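Thread: "does anyone have the structure for this chain?"

Original post by V.I.:
We have the sequence but no experimental structure in hand. Need at least a predicted one for the grant figures.
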Amino acid sequence: MSSLPSTSAARPRSVARRAGAAVATAAVALGLAIVPGVAAADPESTEATAPVAAPRGAIAVVEGATQFAVTPEALKRLQQHDLRLVRLDAKGQTREAVPAGVPLRLDVTSGVVTNMDGRIGGRVLYEDRGLAVVNTRTRQVARLAEFESDLTRNAVLATVNQSDTIAIGRAPSQRITRETLNVADRQVRLTSPVRLSGRAAERLNRVTGTDAFERGETLARVTSQFHLDEEQDVREALGLDKDLDSVDTSQSTRQEAQERPGSAADEMATEENLRKAFPNAAG
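Reply from O.Q.:
Generated one for you, tokens below.
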């Protein structure tokens, strides 16, 4: 499928932009008490979610991966509209088709996990590979690249044909439990369905020239495993008690954080932790 247009020229700039944006987003998330529950990289989205409390602690993600397994129902719908899923390489060039039932794996480049009032929060960036949706009849292509996981707002973010970053899909929030956080192995493990956002459905339909995508449909099942920084104590960094059943009550409550917007920052991730989480960011 080499006849499809290449997007390789803009990749170096996009990497620097993503890293810088990730640091800015993490810094904002770690310094605000209450922020609107809409993905920061998707400011025009009208899909409202619940307000997000300030994080009570953070720890860097040093490696890991996320696998996106497109559901059989979604694959069937794509086939009915002459659409095919094709892998993208790091230069944005189309490669082999994605076989049915085989997930797309993206390795983590950097990130941070936070404790959002007892729930998993944070942000994770992935390697520069992605997925293309190709209309085999008209040759129209939607390239999904520069993937990110916004764990705070339960959104999977990506660009469509190098346009602005939008929430491709949304997943249920997940509490910090023994199932989602293995303290001994220093791992976060998350599995959840991702439902297509309204904005993504509209954009993908327009770019591919179809009406194959529907808001709210389960697009994929996502499985993630993140390895945490070995230099930090996981419980202390995230403000957890020994049983992982509750957060440290000595830390600021959601109401206290709302009344004193800047006060929670002292108990959150330091600049050093942010540098560990996003080592490739400029400035």
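V.I.: this helps a lot. The CA atoms of residues 142 and 207 lie 6 Å apart.
O.Q.: and The longest strand covers residues 58-70.
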